[in-house]
Structure formats: structure tokens, C-alpha cells
Specification:
The complex is a heterodimer of chains A (about 130) and B (about 90). Chain A is mostly helical and about 130 residues long. Helices cover about 85% and strands about 0% of the residues of chain A. Chain A contains 4 helices and no strands. In chain B, helix 1 runs antiparallel to helix 2 and helix 2 runs antiparallel to helix 3. Classes of the chains: A mainly alpha (about 130), B mainly alpha (about 90). Chains A and B meet through helix 1, helix 2 and helix 3 of A and helix 1, helix 2 and helix 3 of B.
Chain lengths: ~130, ~90
């Protein structure tokens, strides 16, 4: 039983490290910033899950297990938010992919929101200026 | 377990080197922020492998702290890019 757990931990460790290596190679292979955001988020998160899983299998006790599982949970919460913020910032700052967009829903959504948002405030300022 | 630790360590070392080269050669700020994010993930992997090999949970809290700091840093850089440009 103990050797089985050790072998499982070893497999998890090696596959997690291999995923990290693959993600690092992907940073060079991907053509633009958006696909690099993709490659730096998902395989890297899975790699952390694998290696921390190996650590959980190897270290006994409730306190270390709680800490390590909390680290995995934190990674699951923060990694998507951080990469989403980066992608949104790249889009807002005018960075474009090397190939043209297939679908760009954010552009149309922002155009619609801009029309709705700017019209009332612009009207208010205009009338206030006219009154005085 | 030591040999497995060496194999994982070498793979993570190569990954860290590649990521560092990417951060240095990046053309814009978004690429650089992505590279730093990836570097943090590699560091977390290294800490977890160290915990697994040594069976010692002294640095387990570091996983939490580094993950949270990296998240705050990424979000701050993203807000900065949104105002200033890539």
C-alpha cells in the first residue's frame, strides 16, 4: 500500500513537471499574446494541481493537507481571474492578434454599452451648458 | 524518490530558464506579465516537488503566500496596461 502511494506520487510529480515544461515551450510556440495567456494559465494550473497532489500523498497529517489543498483552491480561484484581467487589458489597450479575429464579442458589446452610456451624460452636460 | 525528484527538478529548471528567456525577449507588457505568471507557477511547482521529496511541510504556507502575491501583481499590471497601453 505504501509503495503504491509512493509510485502514484512519483507519477504525479513527473507529469506535473512535464506539464510545466510543456507550458514553458508553449510560450515560444504560440503566435500572439492571447494564445500565450491561454497556454500560461491552463497547463500551469494543472501542473500545480499534480505536484501539490503528490505532496499531499507524501506528507501525512491534517494541517499540511489542509494548507496544500487550500493552495490548490486558491490557484483555481485566482488563475482564471488574473488571466481574464490580462486578456481584457490587452484588448482594451488595442493589442491585436497576428491573425484577424474570428469572433470579437467584446468589441460589439463595448460599442453597444458606449452608445447607451454616453448619450444621457452627453445630453445632460449639453443642456446644463445651454441653460446658463 | 530522490531520482524522481531530480528528474522533476531538471524539467522545472529548464521550464524556468525558458520562461525567463521569454520574459526578457517579450515584445510587449502583456507578454511579460504572462511570462511572470508562468514563472510563479513554475516556482509553486518546485516548492510542491520539494515538499513531496523531503516529506517536510515547512514551506507549505509559502505556496499560499506566493500564489496570492502573484495574483495581486497580475491584476495590478492588468489595470496598469488598461490605462497606459501594451
Amino acid at each position: 500500500m505504501n509503495t503504491f502511494v509512493d509510485v502514484l506520487a512519483a507519477v504525479l510529480m513527473v507529469s506535473g513537471s512535464a506539464l510545466a515544461l510543456i507550458a514553458a515551450i508553449g510560450l515560444f510556440r504560440m503566435p500572439d499574446a492571447y494564445s500565450r495567456i491561454h497556454v500560461a494559465t491552463k497547463p500551469a494550473t494543472l501542473a500545480v494541481v499534480f505536484t501539490v497532489g503528490a505532496a499531499v500523498l507524501r506528507v501525512p497529517g491534517l494541517a499540511p493537507t489542509t494548507k496544500l489543498l487550500l493552495a490548490v483552491l486558491l490557484q483555481f480561484w485566482t488563475a482564471p481571474v488574473a488571466s481574464h484581467m490580462l486578456g481584457r487589458a490587452a484588448h482594451a489597450s488595442g493589442l491585436r492578434p497576428t491573425e484577424p479575429w474570428v469572433v470579437d464579442d467584446l468589441e460589439t458589446a463595448e460599442a453597444d454599452a458606449g452608445e447607451i452610456d454616453t448619450e444621457p451624460t452627453g445630453g445632460d452636460v449639453g443642456t446644463a451648458g445651454d441653460d446658463t | 524518490m530522490n531520482a524522481v525528484g531530480w528528474v522533476s527538478g531538471v524539467m522545472l529548471g529548464i521550464a524556468g530558464l525558458l520562461t525567463t528567456v521569454h520574459v526578457i525577449r517579450a515584445r510587449n507588457l502583456v507578454d511579460r506579465a504572462v511570462g511572470v505568471d508562468m514563472l510563479v507557477a513554475v516556482i509553486l511547482n518546485g516548492l510542491a516537488v520539494g515538499i513531496a521529496v523531503s516529506e517536510n511541510d515547512l514551506v507549505a504556507a509559502l505556496l499560499l503566500i506566493i500564489g496570492l502575491l502573484a495574483f495581486l501583481g497580475s491584476v495590478t499590471i492588468a489595470r496598469y496596461i488598461e490605462e497606459r497601453g501594451p
